[in-house]
Design brief:
Layout lengths: L9 H21 L11 E10 L4 E9 L7 E9 L7 E8 L27 E2 L2 E2 L13 H6 L3 E6 L17 H9 L10 H18 L3 E11 L1 H12 L5 E5 L17 H7 L23 H5 L6 E6 L7 H10 L1 H6 L17 E3 L2 E6 L7 H14 L8
Parallel strand pairs: 4-7, 4-8, 8-9, 9-10, 10-12
Antiparallel strand pairs: 1-2, 2-3, 3-7, 5-6, 11-12
Bound molecules: alpha-D-glucopyranuronic acid.
Length: 392
């Protein structure tokens, strides 16, 4: 505890230290989230039972975020057709460039919201066109996920809050409509974009709880990089997520910030001042004053399965710091009688390791999420979420 009291059992952890850590992360890192009392209204806008060559059912669901329904979160869902038993376990994560970018499937609705991909192929001034379909298909192993009996739900993070520094000066800012709708004040330390993206993951999970084809008790939340930071913060706060996967989430995600290796608090708050709560900036060059470090966020996932992954050339995200965070979360998993990593040295490249319900690997190559990463996540989920085996 902050007062120096040692935590020696699960009850103390759950009743005292866990809530204390959650408020410390909110206060000093991400800004204060606003839990919502009721589920958002939604509409199923399309269902195609013959997607991906007949192997999957594709659904699109619109969640109405704002009361005037002008702000929406559009959930793209693929469900495997070849599984004997329903409901199915799921992977869920936010995407960077719109739902249409995760697969060339022409049935996916193209996002109308601004993206960061200014004039890259398929985008004009950040607005996605037909040519953006499948832009990030390499990051989503849709066929693998489906063939192994899992569903996938993904949403464009820019539906929630545009990823740009000037967002709070724009009328479409999340903060502009949210506090008005809720008739509350933002307060002195409102959530940054990561907190908002994490909130969106929980709202999408609210929907999955309503969907009879989905087993909402077996949803693994996954994210790459800034969306890995968001996935971790979502899973830390929302214990309905059955498992958390951090892919190259780095600073403000899995990496131990006190190592000051690669990206630091000062750098991240300079490049992305809109990601965190205001107080995180106070710790620029003062990492040791921060009352938390990120192994404590990994500990907030306990006793649920946690998988952390790094990439060998992704030094910016500090692979060793990402591993150490999984390692130092150990004492909390041990309170639950679970095994934890015993070696403070990370494993060799592409030698995945696992202790109890904690997994880790370092992939060869750059900052990315690839088929290699997904194969590990699906294998891990096979053990941890007990996937329904597809019918032969
Ligand atoms: C930048 C940023 C990282 C972030 C990454 C990403 O590199 O510095 O903190 O994780 O973008 O989201 O790809």
């Amino acid at each position: 505890m902050q007062n120096g009291k040692a935590i020696t059992n699960v009850k103390q952890w759950e009743n005292e230290r866990r809530p204390e850590l959650l408020s410390l992360f909110a206060e000093h890192v991400y800004g204060k989230s606003r839990p919502d009392g009721k589920k958002l209204p939604y509409k199923i806008t399309s269902v195609n039972k013959n997607a991906l060559g007949g192997t999957a059912t594709r659904k699109e669901v619109t969640l109405y975020l704002s009361e005037d329904r002008s702000k929406t979160l559009n959930i793209l869902i693929y469900l495997p057709n070849n599984t004997g038993k329903k409901p199915v376990p799921m992977f869920m994560g936010l995407n960077f460039a719109g739902n249409q970018a995760i697969h060339p499937d022409t049935g996916i609705t193209i996002t109308k919201n601004w993206t960061r991909f200014e004039n890259q192929p398929g985008f004009v001034n950040g607005i996605a066109g037909e040519g953006s379909r499948g832009f990030y298909a390499s990051r989503w192993a849709v066929e693998l996920i489906i063939s192994r009996g899992y569903g996938l739900a993904t949403m464009y993070y820019g539906d929630l809050q545009a990823d740009r520094k000037d967002i709070d000066s724009l009328p479409e800012s999340f903060h502009a409509w949210y506090y008005k709708d809720k008739k509350i004040k933002a307060g002195d330390n409102p959530w940054g974009a990561i907190g908002i993206w994490a909130w969106g993951l929980s709202r999408a999970l609210d929907y999955l709880e309503e969907d009879p084809d989905v087993d909402a008790k077996r949803v693994a939340v996954v994210g790459h990089s800034r969306l890995g930071k968001s996935a971790l913060w979502a899973a830390a706060q929302d214990q309905r997520f059955a498992m958390a996967i951090s892919n190259n989430s780095g600073e403000g995600g899995a990496a131990i910030t006190r190592r000051k290796f690669g990206e630091t608090i000062k750098i991240i708050n300079t490049s992305f001042p809109h990601w965190f709560g205001a107080r995180f900036k106070e710790y620029a060059d003062k990492e040791n004053d921060l009352p938390v470090d990120f192994h404590e966020m990994m500990a907030l996932i306990a006793p649920r399965p946690l998988y952390v992954a790094s990439a060998s050339e992704d030094l910016w995200a500090d692979p060793k710091g990402e591993y150490l965070s999984a390692y130092h979360a150990g004492p909390v998993f041990q309170l639950y009688g679970l095994k934890t990593f015993t070696n403070p040295q990370p494993p060799a490249i592409e030698q995945p390791i696992q202790a109890g319900i904690i997994g880790y690997h370092i992939r060869k190559g750059k900052h990315d999420i690839t088929k290699y990463d997904w194969e590990r996540y699906v294998d891990f989920a096979d053990q941890q979420l007990k996937a329904v085996k597809p019918k032969k």
